[in-house]
Specification:
Strand order of the largest sheet: 13-12-11-14-15
CATH superfamily of the largest domain: ATP-grasp fold, B domain
Largest sheet: 5 strands, antiparallel
Number of strands: 15
Order of helices and strands: HEEEEHEHHEHEEEHEEEHEHEEHH
Number of domains: 3
């Protein structure tokens, strides 16, 4: 979030920054609707007041849940949270402005089964994939494709165990992992292992594509580069024309102006789609390569008031 704010400030573009967690304790809202002119009113902190009718765009980056007084009962907190989501959140989504990304569409796009289907329909190569809670189905899938398989969580899994930060990354399970009875406890995603020369993080902003090769230099990063950032090296690249066209089709289908795409590139140069994050990080790529992603984001935010 800091990079776009710094760039918008440099350009002289007014910015109002607020954390959704500030509502209702540190963020006051008053808005009215009179006919077809749209919602008008104010959103205010202790220091600043925003005229809602002047909002041109919203950069929606990792919103937090509203905070309520500790003395509220669990029942009251549940009701207040639902009302805040539909009232405060609903009002923001009703503003006539452009969003990066649009909250509802971004939430839909985060479902991996959905994005994999759309990617395939738009012409991108996707790995053979199984979703199951049956160890026997996982075993049949692994035996049938005849290559190693990769297990991937559907959502980022991070936490703390015994005071240590832990995370679950993609792994290549051995036979015991494929047959693990704990697979029955929830949905699991398995994909064929795609031979890789390197991976690519491609950041799409308003039709512009910024691609960087990611080269892993450790065994852990070879399976999931997120597990060992220190071992990575980067190089700017260009996607094949067919891949670029498919990406733009996919963004159109998903209704997204922004997406952080991950690809595997095989030794023969074939690109395989892994996933798209509608609110994915890009700062580490910009810092390593100099690709002007922040400028593209700010260009989009400064575009027409309604998109």
């Amino acid at each position: 979030m800091e990079r776009p704010i710094e760039e918008l400030n440099r350009r002289g573009t007014p910015v109002f920054r607020a954390d959704t967690a500030w509502f209702p304790s540190r963020l006051a809202l008053a808005a009215g609707l009179d006919g077809a002119s749209g919602w008008a009113g104010t959103l205010a902190t202790e220091r600043r007041t925003l005229d809602l009718s002047a909002v041109r765009s919203v950069y929606y980056r990792r919103p937090s849940a509203p905070e309520f007084p500790a003395e509220m009962s669990a029942e009251a907190r549940s009701v207040a949270s639902a009302e805040a989501r539909r009232g405060f959140g609903g009002l923001l989504s009703a503003l006539s402005c452009r969003w990066l990304p649009p909250p509802g569409r971004a939430a839909d796009a985060e479902y991996k089964p959905f994005q994999l289907r759309v990617a395939a329909e738009c012409g991108l190569r996707v790995p053979r994939t199984l979703i199951t809670n049956m160890p026997e189905a996982a075993r049949e899938f692994a035996d049938g494709i005849g290559t190693p398989v990769v297990y991937k969580p559907f959502t980022p899994i991070r936490g703390t165990i015994d005071g240590q930060s832990v995370a679950v990354y993609a792994t290549v399970p051995d036979r015991g992992g494929i047959d693990d009875p704990s697979i029955r406890t929830t949905a699991h995603l398995f994909q064929e292992w795609v031979p890789k020369a390197h991976e690519v993080r491609l950041t799409a902003v308003g039709g512009q594509l910024f691609a960087a090769e990611i080269h892993a230099n450790s065994a852990a990063a070879e399976v999931d580069w997120r597990s060992d950032y220190d071992s990575l090296t980067y190089r700017v690249c260009e996607p094949p024309a067919a891949v670029a066209s498919a990406i733009r089709r996919m963004l159109g289908r998903l209704g997204l102006p922004y997406g952080a795409f991950d690809f595997v590139v095989s030794p023969s140069g074939e690109w395989t789609f892994l996933e798209v994050n509608p609110n994915g990080q890009y700062g580490f790529i910009e810092q390593a390569t100099g690709l002007p992603i922040t400028a593209a984001i700010c260009d989009y935010l400064e575009g027409p008031a309604q998109a």
